[in-house]
């Protein structure tokens, strides 16, 4: 007989707040009122506080003394940290893909994400920004996911949310050229197809070397 896992109230609140941050119901820098949220959900403050503590550890929320929790604000320092982390994860994962002979499967996966990006490249709306950013990240982290390394996936899971927030912010505020983004992905894919390891690393480095502001 199967045993169903009960989802704790804390986990449900965590999913709710995280969802509101990622879909921008809660804007960057916006204060999250714990009392109002607890009242809205008809629960005590404890699971709300616990959920926010997890989100703080994942970088999506900050706590300010005497002001309480806020959605993270993105500046150049955070932007650089996220990009540097992505480079480390993706280059290391690429090396593992070679060792595990996963390159053919990786190529197929990356081609599919590029095709999806091209289908969205001429659409211009908040919804298409959101979806394009999602697919762009799926292309990038396909290097990680294809390894099916549960330990690595746990490490990157929290980072994925912050990466998405940063990429979405970049797309919405700094007029990211979608065709250029696709071209960068095609350069990475072509280098992988050609087995040019130095170029793969070079293009990953270039892909995550943007500035904001």
Task: Describe the 3D structure.
- The protein is mainly α and 213 residues long.
- It has two domains: 9-71, Arc Repressor Mutant, subunit A; 76-207, Four Helix Bundle (Hemerythrin (Met), subunit A) (Up-down Bundle).
- 69% of the residues lie in helices and 4% in strands.
- It has nine helices and two strands; from the N terminus they run H-H-H-E-E-H-H-H-H-H-H.
- The protein has helices at residues 9-22, 34-41, 45-57, 76-99, 103-120, 126-145, 150-173, 178-193, 197-207, and strands at 61-64, 68-71.
- Strands 1-2 form a two-stranded antiparallel sheet.
- A hairpin with a 3-residue loop joins strand 1 (61-64) and strand 2.
- Helix 4 (76-99) packs across helix 7, helix 5 runs antiparallel to helix 6 and helix 6 (126-145) packs antiparallel against helix 7.
- The longest helix has 24 residues, at 76-99.
- The chain is globular and about 55 Å long.
Note the quaternary state here: single chain
Q: Poorly predicted ranges (pLDDT <50, ≥5 residues)?
A: none
Would you list the SSEs in sequence order as H and E?
HHHEEHHHHHH
Query: Can you tell me the CATH class of the largest domain?
Result: Mainly Alpha
Could you give a short description of this structure?
The chain is mostly helical and 213 residues long. It contains nine helices and two strands. Helix 8 packs antiparallel against helix 9 (197-207).
């Amino acid at each position: 007989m199967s045993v169903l896992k009960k989802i704790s109230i804390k986990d449900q609140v965590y999913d709710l707040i995280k969802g509101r941050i990622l879909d921008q119901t809660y804007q960057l820098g916006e204060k999250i009122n714990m009392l109002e949220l607890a009242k809205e959900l008809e629960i005590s403050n404890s699971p709300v506080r616990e959920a926010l503590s997890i989100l703080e550890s994942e970088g999506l929320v900050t706590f300010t003394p005497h002001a309480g929790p806020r959605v993270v604000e993105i500046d150049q320092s955070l932007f650089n940290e996220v990009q540097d982390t992505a480079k480390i994860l993706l280059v290391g994962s690429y090396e593992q893909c070679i060792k595990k002979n996963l390159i053919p499967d990786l190529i197929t996966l990356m081609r599919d994400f590029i095709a999806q990006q091209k289908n969205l490249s001429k659409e211009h709306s908040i919804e298409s920004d959101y979806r394009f950013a999602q697919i762009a990240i799926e292309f990038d982290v396909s290097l990680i996911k294809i390894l099916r390394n549960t330990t690595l996936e746990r490490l990157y899971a929290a980072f994925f949310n912050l990466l998405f927030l940063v990429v979405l912010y970049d797309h919405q505020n700094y007029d990211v050229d979608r065709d250029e983004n696709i071209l960068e992905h095609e350069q990475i894919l072509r280098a992988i197809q050609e087995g040019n390891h130095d170029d793969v690393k070079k293009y990953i480095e270039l892909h995550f070397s943007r500035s904001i502001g």
